[in-house]
Write a structure and sequence with these properties.
single chain; about 290 residues; four-stranded parallel sheet; three-stranded antiparallel sheet; 12 helices; about 35% helix; globular
């Protein structure tokens, strides 16, 4: 459903009629963030109309922020399309589409089938939250329908389209659900597409699963690259920051042979800045400090 002006429904509560000027621009960007962050818990609406295009005033605002490292949240497929349209216009006008800009779409939770390829064409980062799918699959299809759910948490399609995947926990979550900080839960969700109880048996839209190697990369090396910090973090190498978690489980082996074992992985040591800040006692399996 769209208004007569081709904008999103008035219930969104946001207008993009913005005057030129820094204060107005910042206010509009903040308002845009509210729109992009709208949850998919609302009942299904009509898919975005490819012919309608994004709100013109939002494009005008976007055209004034070329130089920012854009990181916009977008959850529903309409919101994702707006962000992609803005990025394409802004990057295109600035001649930066092929540059090393590392702009990102945060969440990219539901993507229209026509829009996956645009992530690769625009050289975008998709900052996704894999544990969300382990919780949201309970109600997603009932709220937005089976067909649109095919584009939900579609990590494989995003990666195959050329997006750089990076993981985040989105902790603490919402009033409806609490999201764990444990990054291993995110790895498990990405490789199984199941709840913590192992449901459904074959995984939810299992064709969108990642390999354990891809998931680990999205949780370590890729986020450092996305934040222009690949010269000092993200991999274990001499000269890099010594921030390390040592587990009792081989994550790669477990991810291939028995992903459920990932959920039982325990931390032996946590090293921050080259100093051991946590150690688990072997005798009673309790933290030593």
């Amino acid at each position: 459903m769209r208004s007569q002006q081709g904008r999103f429904p008035a219930a969104r509560g946001i207008e993009f009629r913005v005057a030129v000027g820094l204060a107005a621009t910042l206010a509009a960007v903040a308002a845009a963030s509210l729109l992009m962050s709208r949850s998919t818990v609302a009942r299904a609406e009509a898919p975005p109309d490819p012919a309608a295009g994004p709100p013109a005033d939002l494009i005008l605002v976007g055209g004034r922020i070329y130089t920012l490292d854009a990181q916009r949240p977008a959850i529903g497929d309409q919101a994702v399309r707006i962000v992609l349209d803005v990025y394409e216009r802004v990057l295109g006008e600035a001649g930066r589409i092929g540059s090393d800009h590392r702009w990102r779409v945060i969440h990219a939770q539901v993507v229209h089938p026509d829009d996956f390829v645009r992530f690769g064409r625009l050289h975008l980062v998709a900052e996704v939250n894999p544990y969300h799918l382990a919780d949201d699959m309970r109600w997603m299809e009932e709220r937005i329908g089976h067909d649109r759910s095919r584009g939900a948490y579609a990590f494989r399609r995003l990666k195959d389209a050329g997006a750089v995947l990076i993981f985040g926990s989105d902790s603490p979550g919402t009033n409806a659900a609490r999201y764990y900080l444990n990054p291993v839960y995110g790895l498990y969700a990405a490789v199984t597409r199941q709840t913590l109880k192992g449901e459904p048996a074959g995984g939810w839209f299992p064709d969108q699963r990642l390999t354990i190697e891809e998931a680990i990369d999205a949780a370590t090396r890729a986020p450092a690259w996305a934040s222009f910090e690949e010269d000092r973090k993200g991999v274990l190498r001499p000269g890099m920051l010594a921030d390390v978690a040592v587990l009792d489980t081989n994550l790669v082996e477990a991810g291939h042979a028995n992903p459920a074992a990932l959920l039982k992985a325990q931390v032996h040591y946590t090293i921050a800045g080259g100093r051991v800040v946590f150690e688990r006692r072997a005798a009673d399996n309790k933290p030593a400090r």
